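Record format v2
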Amino acid sequence: MKHNWNRRDFIRQTGAATLAAMAAAAPVPAILSGCNSKNKIAGNTSADTVILLWMAGGMAHTETFDPKRYTPFETGMEGNRVLSTFKSVPTALDGINFSEGLQSIGSVMDKGTLIRSYVAADMGHILHSRHQYHWHTCYEPPQTVAAPHIGAWVAKELGPKNPVIPAFVDIGQRFTVGEAEELKAFHTAGFLGSEYAPFMIPDPSEGLESVRPPVGMDAKRFEKRNQLYTDLINKSPLSELGSDYQKESLKRSMEQAYMLLNSPEAKAFDLSLEPKASYDIYNTGRFGLGCLLAKRLTQQGARFISVTTEYEPFMGFDTHENGHTRMVGMKKMIDAPVAQLVKDLHQSGHLDRTMIILASEFSRDMMVEGRPDAKVQEQVNQPDILNDLKFYGMHRHFTDGCSILMFGGGIKKGFVYGKTADERPCKSIENPVKIDQIHQTVYHALGIPEDKQYEIEKRPFYTTPDAKGKPVLELLDKAKA
Amino acid sequence: MKSLKILFASQYNSTNSAKFFVKSFALVFAVCVIFVVPGIAEPTEEAAKEPVFWLWAFLGRLHPMIVHFPISLLFIALLMELLGRRSNKFNAAIRVLVYTGAASAVLSVILGLLLAGTEEYGSDVFSLHKWAGIATMIFGLLSAAAYKLSNRTIQKTLLTITVLGVTIAGHYGASLTHGEDYLTSVLPGNNAPAGEQNAASNFVLAAQTGPLNETQVQELNLQVRTIFAHNCYNCHGSAKVKGELRLDSKDAIFKGGEHGKVIVPGDVHKSELLRRIKLPRSDKKSMPTKGKGLTKEEIAVIEYWIKQGAPWPSGQLKSLYRVAELAPRLPNIPAATGDLNNPVDLFVNDYFQKNKIKWATPVDDRTYIRRVYIDVTGLLPPPDSIDVFLKDARPDKRSVLVSRLLSRNDDYAQHWLTFWNDALRNDYTGTGYITGGRWDITKWLYNSLKENKPYNEFVRQLVSPTKESQGFVKGIKWRGTINSSQSTEMQAAQNVAQVFLGLNLKCASCHDSFISDWKLEDSYAFANLFCDSILEINRCDKPTGIMASRRILYKELGEIDTSTVTQERLKQLADLLVQPKDGRLYRTLVNRVWAQVMGRGIIEPMDAMDNAPWSQDLLDWLAYDFVESGYDIKKLIYKILTSKTYQLPSVGVKEPEQIMSPNFVFNGMLRRRLTAEEFADAVSVAIQPVYADSMAVFKLLPEDFNKSIPFARASLVKNDPFLTALGRPNRETVSTSRTSQASLLQALELTNGSKFNDAMKYGAAKWKNKYPDTKTLVKEVYRNAIGRLPGKAEEDVAEKALGNAPTEAAIQDFMWAVALHPEFQLIY
């Protein structure tokens, strides 16, 4: 029953989704003239759930999914010689290698596509938060109106898949770490309205806390409290005022929240219910458990889930030094859970309609900051001669060649797209892909039209700037697309 | 069709049978009901899309010819009946006329329905025409029957009704073809006001013969450009130039596209553009390629324009868009009437009369005191104050109350701070601060509100700032490269225009606007006023090599010395902006304040002050009076809050879309939900402080701010997930209104979020001590939170839930339920 909920049912049922045209800032579906008739959901969709696995902080492609010549560390070595600091290992795909430590993900590559030619935006002085904003909203900051996160667009257009699971769930990012304000700027539904904002679960092992009665309140008391609320409203003389959308939307969202917190599906948030063997595979820390939560929610009907390794300046993938050593740990963190997520969803049959995307805001390189032809201000102290292991690694921010993995939801199986040069600069040399193409590919699979737009302050605001981006149809399985 | 033949044959051949008429009537009726009416009488989109069988289309198009038969035949029949009423000399002729008239009415209806099915009609006028036509047919048949069977009186009556019917049907039919105001537009005193002409699709000119005068050329040209703008600019404008053709300027239109000229003035046959828009929609070459295509009327306008030689006015072109007056205007205040004397009420009374709205009984004291407390101070009224107010017998107690509240300067400042923080995008945390690229103006803003700084001075100090108020025009400076439409100078231009002038420059800061006459150069010239150097114009972020000038947006406001330094320039700009003759500045402000307390602006959206107000007079008067009264925002609030208009019962709408609809009709204050800050403060006042006093951003507040506050107002604390969920925006962009609708995320935050539930928990402990007795507790919670005693039924429910010796948990849950009660959450 709940798996067939579409947007319209949701609106009818909850009423909470009505386009609030209250404000100048509220979006109105654009109906300028007869020119926007393309706004129709395409007939064949290949996905209805999206999981974004976010490698926060800039994941070096040459150290992960696009390894180059390996040069082991020697004191006094020339940094320019180093393209990869790991050996390459084979994957399930003939002739395609990954960097050592990603064997598990390599083993499921027959189920997905590897993009080796993502090119991040050129925004001058490189800032993680700006590039992350750009990746997630498809717009370069700053914008004159608050741009929505891709998850908010999906939530807005398709609504929750299961009415009791928030349409857009964001797992793993805390706002108590550095650059919190910059992170908040894109963890938002922007002008689409707070209804489509991410449901934040900073710690997946505490996910249940967000969807169960307040701490210290048992189920019986929770039910009683809700009953009292309903009774008091029913006995109130205010009902004489008649109904309006304010009152109705308040009542309905409260009912919905109660339903969610009381629903059997809420158990999906409870990781302690996962069999121990499975839990242990996922449990590489918060990111791994985030993948587990994503799996459980997907199986109960989630719409858009983002799981992040978490961005914190100079932490995680943001390797300004000790790049090699740090990458050993980061690979451990992602390898098993990502592979397991793909396997589990494949096994339960959900992978067919669930698109998994693994990506990062940009890549890294030992020598080049920015892109080869447009170098920007150096931010990392990287000597030309390496006398210390801590300088051995990809420490500069490289935007001209990054890897993205995609699985399921109509994505081709066992496919590689694009290519980077085998010598420095290891930039994209074949089929470069930009962020708007990635977004449009996701929207295409979900059936959201390319020129979907809302009129905000009388201007059209598209899912991707000026609706110029086109989906990369080569990534999609024709039989499904 | 067979039935038609029979009908005709029998009509003419019949000499006797009364049965025959009954039969034919039934037959025609059946034809209409079964075959025509349900299928094609209602022009639907599907019908329009499917190509129609040519014969139906052909027959349909005979309708305009055939309709003249029933009109003239029946009319003459009636005339003869009246003229020859003494003698009976016309009788035979009348009979023939009535029979043939009725028959032609039947035929007209059938052909008319065919026409409607094959072409696109669908207005109210169409519907009126259709039913008037069908009614005429029926009465025509009845008349015919009467002339066969009945007496003279019935005959005459029926014939008169039929002629009346045919007149009405004819009138609406003509309105369909020639435009609704075809007849009335030539009547004296019926000229639409200038601003409204754009909106009306007037097809007046097409009927004009002979050369056009200058005004008519302007009008016709405007119609043509409007049609192009709506149907063609998307692909033949500055954004896209398909087929190398642009239709957005005179030169481009006459230059044509890749295949040469598209318009040959005076020659409708050689004008390719006309040919293409007239092609059937199924034709691949038909224009526009997307959408429904042009209406018949639109095509006719273009055709007429070309026939007239495609005239183009010589001087300034009339705007395609509604452009509001810049100058202030003092409308005549309608004479006092009844118990109305506040000008606000008199203007609203005028509006009500025009819209046939009756004044409802004003709200009771309890509702009123709650409203004004929230609207002035953002706080709930304390229960004792409510009691005193209810008992107060003074007739002017409401205005006394408003004055008293307005004099509570700190409370007032702490409430309105939220609105101005949103509008001026002033926040305590946020992007930009970390890198020193942003300045907060909290101190200045707080003090300005507290001392009720005159608005002209307020604007002056923001535009031409001191160190304390510079944050607004300095904007947010991001590291790295940014889009050229987001330079700090352009941010200043956009934000000054949006917040103070209700003008959207955002389009025109990237390219010439598609939604107004503002050009890219205008925006850059305005931005240059804030810039030490001169900005190079970037079109869609691509440098053009052209340096912009320096200029204020409205040249009517005066000139700025462009040679002087930025600081001096901004001083001049500020002076020009706040002049009384800048009516737009003050209309924008009064509209914002009105919307804050009434739930909807007189103009919406409030940032689009070129839109039509629901009452121009009210808006103009409020703005004019605001200037006359010393730019005093509190006086403005006083005037509104003491009006009968404000005291009308609140109005709820079923769908939020209705609020922004251009057809919005004002009936009274719109019911609103408490904002995030109002809700948090209401909980703080009524139950338990949500924020400890230490949470206030004291460092950013004025030094003399009294730190021993009972609780921190939510307007003074940093944004957090609780406030965000309830709608406090992140203030990176200007935000002049908030949505008032609940969402699941809000509900979740309220259901199990710690911020709110903790307040309930601590509150419960406190209240348990204070009111150990259940009855008193229930009463006090209701008094404090809802502002009244509980009703009997409510008391029963609450007491039952609490029990005789309530636990803290039970009290907590009770308070939670009350705080989520719509009566707590809404301003009604």
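DSSP finds 37 helices and four strands in chain B.
Residues 360-407 of chain B form one domain.
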